[in-house]
Structure formats: C-alpha cells, structure tokens
Amino acid sequence: MLWDGVQVTLLVGVCAMALALVMGLLGAWGKLSHSRTARTAADTYTTVIRGVPELILILIVYYGTPTLIQTVLESFGHDIIIDINPFLAGFITIGFIYGAFATEVFRGAFLAIDKGQIEAARAYGMSRSLAFRRILLPQVWRFALPGLGNVWMVLIKATALISVIQLPELLRNADIAARAVRLPFTFYFAASLIYLAITIVSMLALQRAEAWANRGIRRA
Amino acid sequence: MDFDVIFSSIPALLEGAVLTIEITALSVLIGLAVSVPLALMRVSHNPALWMPVYGYIFYFRGTPLLVQIFLIYYGSGQFREALEAAGLWHFFREPYFCAVLTLTLNTAAYTAEILRGAIRAVPYGEVEAARACGMSRGLLYRRIILPKAFRLALPAYSNEVVFLFQATSLVSIITLLDLTGVARIIVARSFAVYEIYITAGIIYLIVTYGILYIFKKVEFRLSGHLREREGMDAAAPAAKAAAAQPVKPAIAIR
User: Fold this and answer.
1) How many CB pairs under 8 A join A and B?
2) What is the mean pLDDT of chain A?
C-alpha cells in the first residue's frame, strides 16, 4: 500500500517538475524580456506565488476553480457540476508554484552566461532562436542544475500536501494504514523514511547530473 | 464575486491571522535559541557532537513538514501509556503544543544549517587576528565569529522565517484555527470558496512582505559600517559597491 503511494507521489512529482520547468523557462523569458507586459506578468506571478502558502493555493485550485467555473456557466444559463480530478489539481498546482521558484533559477542561469557568446553567435549569422537553442540552452543547465535540484527536492516534499485533497499518494496511504491498524507512529515514521530515501537518491542523481553538465569545464 | 461574504468574514480571518503570527513568533524565537548551540555542535570536530546534530538536521530537512506534524500529533498516541506515566500526555493531546513543537524542531534544523554555513563563511583572517590578540575560544566565538555569522546569515534567515510563516498554514490540518483553519470553516459554511481563500491568500501575502520589509530594515541597520558615510568621498571601492547594492532578501528556495 505504501508502495502504491510512492508511485503516485513520484508520478505527481515528475509531472509537476515538468510543468515547473516549462513555467520556469516561460517566467525567465518574461523577466528578461524587453516587453513591459511580459515583465510585469512574470513579476506578478513570482511575487504572488511566493507570498501565499502552498496549502491555500491547492485549496483555491481544487475547490475554488470548479465553483468559479460553475458560477460563470450558471450566469450563462448552464447548470453543470464540475469535479476536478485530484491528481490533475495536485500536479498543476504544485507545478505552478514551483515554476515560480524555477523562474528565479533560470533567470540567474541565463544571466550567468557570457553575453559575448550570444554576440558571437549573432555575428556568425545565427538567428535568435538558433542562438538560443545552440548556445544558451545547452549551457544554461550547468548554471541551473544546482538550483533546479533544490527545487525538485522541495517539490517532492510538497507533494505530501496533496494528501489533503484525498489523492492516494504516500502520506495519504500511510494515513489510511495508520488509522486501520492503529499504529500511527509506525506508519508515519515509515513514510518519513521513504521521503528521506527519495531525497538521498535525488541528491546522488543530482551529483551525477552536475558532473555531466560540467563536462569539458576546467575546474579551478 | 460575493463581496459581502468577504467583508463579513474579515474580522474572523484576522483573528485567525493573529494565531498564525503567534505560532510563527513562538516557533521562530524558540527555534533560533535552540539552533545556535546546534550550529556550534555541528561545526565541532568531535564526532560525538556533530554526528547526532547532522542526523537531526538531515531528517528534519529531508522529510515533509506535514509528515512531521502527523508524526508528533497523531504518532504520539501510540505511546500514550508511556507519555501518561511521564505526565506529558496532556501536552501531546493539545494540537497547539504539537504544532509549535513540530515547527520549532523544523525551523531549528533549517536555521542551524544556515548558521553552520555562515560560521564557515567567517573570514579566517578575522579569526586569526582575534587569536593573535590572545582571545580565548569562548571570547572568540562571542565577540568575533557569532556576530559576523549572524550578519552573514540574515538574508537566508529572512527566507526561513517567511517559509515558516507560510508553513504554519499546515497546522489547520490538525484542527487549529489559524488563518487557513478559519478560512476553511467559513468556506464550509458559506460555500464562498474562492472569495474566502483568495482573501486569506492576500492576508498571507501582506504579512509575508511585511516580514521581508522588517528584515530589510534590520539588515540596513546592521550593515552601517559597510555603507559610505554622508559627505565623504568613496575611499573604499568595496564599501561603495556594498552600498550601491543593498543585500536584497528576495525570497529564495530553502
């Protein structure tokens, strides 16, 4: 049962991380963009997300969105009851939240890349998108990986919050088991050790990934 | 949007916010007091001192806070007889006590790690100079290392306080009526789901940036010696750079 929970936790975590990466790239693009609207939108996004607790955001998305849609549809004369799938609500909210943190990581990483390289690429006649793809993107991982690894480790712990919307992930299953056999400490402790194991494995994987991203770089 | 519901629920929400701030303040203060000796043990070379602290920090930073809250609040029930025998059961029965205990243990672990980094970052020359002046170890820590480390740790610590403040929303899950708890009750009664949660979110947002503002002020005061003095030419370019770039406590990742 805990194993089923682990699978759901990891699945939510991976989906949320993928969404966070997309949101992070978009956000970083917005923050570094010349367009005022894009900058304001990206700034509002990171400010709001980082100022409001995750739990409140999950509750807004899971309980608030269906009601909002229903109210809007009702005003148009439709009467539909909408139920959001907790898995979907969970991974979208978590991905959206950690996208704000990934935004900062990517922003810093893009700024860390030598500007002269882009100028050189442009001087060779590369288009903007080609220079982004061939010069910026391959290098950005080197600067972004430590930060993104950090985001992943906080994110996987944040998935425990989705248990409040009844998604059968690790903590929720531990909760059910603990109540059934009346051994709360045993089961919560087991769950905590599994989270710890996920953290340790992630740390090791991150070290290898960093070594890969830094290949060909001379060490001081 | 139903604005009447929002206005009529603001007093109750603010009452919840008071409990939220109270729990945050208690945990932050106790956690800070606990974390200083922990950080000192962590930088010690004696394995009997640093290893247990390392394990404690690793456990509390590597597991979700919600699991820790459940472990202490519900998990203590498994040891009810032992706790009753020790006369501690009526503490662990209280969600308030369990919430503050968990948050304190959690923030102490994160703060000890921040302080460890800061103590390691104290320039070695300063330590050497103090030793050359004949300072004892105790005096060295009290006068040189700790004051410098606190200043270095401040930006990271302000993030930790903000995270802890937001994390207190989890105590609503163990039935405490903090800001989130009150919001959930009002929602259950009025069905004004997004109005109430968004209002609660805005209150959190305001307090969060209030906390950051206070830390910014404190940082400004503590960095007086790094700023250029009024009416003086910039003698030290380093000081000028430090003044031009005030340390920004932007919220980073814990």
Assistant:
1) 128
2) 87
Instruction: Report, as ranges of residue numbers, the positions in chain B whose pLDDT lies below 50.
Output: 234-235, 239-253
**Are B135 and B55 contacting, i.e. CB atoms less than 8 angstroms apart?**
no
Q: Would you call A138 an interface residue with chain B, using a CB distance cutoff of 8 Å?
A: no
Instruction: Give this complex's ipTM.
Output: 0.85
Return the residue in B106, B172, B193 with the most chain A beta carbons within 10 A, the one to mutate for interface testing: B193
Give how far the C-alpha of residue A208 lies from the chain's centroid of Cα atoms, to the nearest Å.
21
Which H, E and C letters describe chain A, residue by residue?
A: CHHHHHHHHHHHHHHHHHHHHHHHHHHHHHHHCCCHHHHHHHHHHHHHHHHCCHHHHHHHHHHHHHHHHHHHHHHCCCCCCCCCCHHHHHHHHHHHHHHHHHHHHHHHHHHHCCHHHHHHHHHCCCCHHHHHHHHHHHHHHHHHHHHHHHHHHHHHHHHHHHHHHCCCCHHHHHHHHHHHHCCHHHHHHHHHHHHHHHHHHHHHHHHHHHHHHCCCCCCC
Closest-CA residue in chain B for A108?
A: B252
The Cα B253–Cα A125 span in angstroms is 39
A167 pLDDT tier (thresholds 50, 70, 90): confident
Round to whole Å and give the CA distance between B94 and B88: 11
Q: How far is B233 from chain A (nearest CA, A)?
A: 32
| B249, B159 Cβ separation under 8 angstroms | yes
Nearest-Cα distance to chain B for A181, in Å, is 11
pTM of the predicted structure, to 2 decimals: 0.85
Taking an 8 Å cut-off on Cβ atoms, the answer to whether A196 and B62 are in contact is: yes
Give A111-138 pLDDT, tens digit per residue.
888 888 888 988 998 888 888 888 888 8
Angle (deg, nearest 10), helices B193-222 and B179-190: 170
Report the distance separating Cα A67 and Cα A172, nearest Å: 25
At B194, list the tokens: 């997004």
Q: For chain B, how many residues are written?
A: 254
> Using one digit for the tens of pLDDT, what is the confidence trace for A43-86?
999 999 888 999 999 988 888 888 888 888 888 877 777 777 88
Contacts of B209 in chain A (CB under 8 A): 51
